[in-house]
Amino acid sequence: MNPVLIPIFALLIPIVAIIANVVIKPMIRLRERKMELEATMVAEKAAQYAARTERLEQRVRVLERIVTDRGTDLAGEIERLRDERPLN
Fold this sequence. Notes:
By secondary structure, this protein is mostly helical. It has helices at 5-68, 74-84.
């Protein structure tokens, strides 16, 4: 190896480190921020799906009560259950 190359490589190491610090760190921070935003959006969407699923389950429970309750007038039961339904 050429003895002149040793000091050149020795100087290149800190230069590369400085460039990496200036260029790569902001890129990593940007990617982390993007991932955080995506995680927030996914969590919000999951909460919306959970709320919708809960509403659908409530409706199914009401329909099950209507179908399994044989001793009542069906139209009257439907109207009574509509009045009970919480407003969202």
